[in-house]
Amino acid sequence: METTQLTNEKQELVKVEEEVDLNNTLYYNNREISWLNFNLRVLEEAMDERNAFLERLKFLAIYESNLDEFFMVRVASLFDQIHAGYNIPENKAGMTPRAQLNAISDVLHKHVEIQNDTYLSLVPKLKDYNIHVLKMEELEKEDVRYLEQHFDEHIFPVLTPMVIDAHRPFPKLLNKSLNLAITVGNKPSKKQGDATDDEKLSIVQVPSVLKRYIEIPAEDETETKRVFVLLEDILSHFIHKLFKGFQVTSVTAFRITRNADLTIHEEGAQDLLAEIEQELRKRQWGAAVRLEIQGDNKNDTIVNFLIEKLEVERKHTYFYEAPLDLTFLFSFYGALKETHPTLADAPHPPQVPQDLVAGQNVLDAALEEDLLLHHPYESFDPVVELIARAAEHPDVLAIKQTLYRVSGNSPIIKSLKRAAENGKQVTVLLELKARFDEENNVQWARELEKAGCHVIYGIIYLKTHSKISLIVRRRNNKIERFVHLGTGNYNDATARIYTDLGLITTNEEIGEDATNFFNHLSGYMKKPKYNHLIVSPLDIRKKFIELMEKEIEHHKKHGNGHIIAKMNSLSDKALIMKMYEASRAGVKIDLIVRGICCLRPGIPGISENITVRSIVGRFLEHTRIFYFHNNGDEKVYLSSADMMTRNMDRRVEILFPILKPHLRDRIIDWLDLIWSDNVKAREQAADGTYHYVPRKAGEQVINSQEVLYDRAKRNATASSQALTDIRKNKVKSPF
């Protein structure tokens, strides 16, 4: 009887029998721990010496930013469940909310040590490039004098000490704010950090309106040495100027993270805009869920005082030697990249898409053939151009579009406003509940309405996460419909760093589907029967299960079952169980899951035919691609949805097929390339841990993102040559 140990935590051996219970909790990874392991892979990119030096610093910032959001939403939600008396285990790994919080704390304390070591090992290496991040005590006297003058003129006027005593209670501290807890007294303390009876405590917020680091000017323009000092170090050194007549006895830097998840009561909200604006004002003042302290002061009186006043659990108090809030490395990266470009990745400007030639009208091209766009290797400009041309074209009657996240200076928003001003019917389904973009989207909603657009907010209790645009044009007394469908947001900024796919088509049946989709969401209409689109809630899961069941049938008859799925996250239990069923039937399943993966591969008798890989690289992998061999009649679908319960049940999502064989073959080729990555790909073991995909001796080195970009460059060059040949009448235009 075959046995296997599923985890490295002394879990019992499980007998693999013909009849198995696929609900067994040992067959699943907990969602939150899986996410922490994903973020560890991000942190490992900061440790990877193969990456450009400044990129390693940026990965530290990404790791920190990810972790902030994790606490504000996921950890906060677990605390909410506990406070509500909810103690039911989650449905996969079987962990209660309290058990999950304890596990998060255990894992994250280990990760904090890695984060500390990574930062403290990287920063000294900057000296090799004549870049110095120094403490005040490491500076020359003239540099200290410069910083003192800078403090007096630019920092001191902004500071506000908040004394805590019998008459002045502990202040409200903003979410994610960096603060200094300062003890002052008439005489030195007997022990650093222990307040005497004469000592008083004050809080000073490190002003977020000021740059987090100060650069000391070079003595002359030819000087290549760059010297930086962190703002909190400057404040700590000169903080005594705020407390004249007293002696500063200790300074403790700390930071809090609060519950920032919005609770929107849609049913009772007559004006959803106003409801969200009201909730946004509360976001900064949610319950504290994490306390970060700089310095190893676990028994310090001040630390204990902060834990008590902020009502933070000690196990969710984290101590750092490195500076707090490493998100400042985003701007630091930008500052250093200007003078040290060779320390960053070489620029990869997006290329002209393979299905277009430079200067070609995207509307005209789409009438001839479906256009497949692969960002960021290929430019997002055709999508921007599609809406811009439609806004100005005299024969365009209507534009309908969903928006989830857009850039701060969105050209698409400008085009939609322009279209409305030009008298076209413009309908925008704008998702106000896009997490951490709510405030931006409220502002966009007001601007679009002011311009004359019809703005709708989707279906109650559901987030509209689908990415679709519909342009209706009348030409030669006939209606033409242009549809764009995508896996990523209509965001020209993130389209330069997220991998996504988009399809522009004039297929009449898809155009009809798009019309029905918007009419269903904006009016009173029963759920339409679509020709090609599959729409959640509910229908996408149903379609996936149907496709997997067909693959099982084909494999039983022909032995060639194969599924490839690429997504951000996999957590839906029903879909995981169906994959286990397919694996047990012998179907080969290759999963490329960047982040959360609750499925455990490689379990004998359960998932030995499933392989899970994750790619964390230069670009954020965001495409959702689903391939089914289907006994040779291959099916490829793209989607805005991951295989997560929220995408299946609580969001409006679209799964759409690639109908043109040449485009389907192109995507399959990309999938094969991504699967063969042996530089950035990591593979999940049966215990949920990840390791780099081993490279065999003599095997070609493949960084899939770099190869895809090189291909895009070659295709753009070929397209440019084709245009030249057309203009010289060497060949007939394919358009």
How would you explain this protein's 3D organization?
The chain is of the alpha/beta class. Strand 21, helix 15 (573-584) and strand 22 form a beta-alpha-beta unit. The strands form five sheets. Strands 16, 20, 21, 22, 23, 25, 26, 27, 28 and 29 form a ten-stranded mixed beta sheet that branches. Strands 12, 13, 14, 15, 17, 18, 19 and 24 form an eight-stranded mixed beta sheet that branches. It contains 18 helices and 29 strands. Residues 1-17, 192-196, 264-270 and 730-735 have low confidence and may be disordered. Helix 1 packs antiparallel against helix 2, helix 6 packs antiparallel against helix 12 and helix 17 (661-675) runs antiparallel to helix 18. 36% of the residues lie in helices and 21% in strands. The longest helix is centred in the N-terminal third of the chain and has 31 residues, at 53-83. It catalyses: [phosphate](n) + ATP = [phosphate](n+1) + ADP.
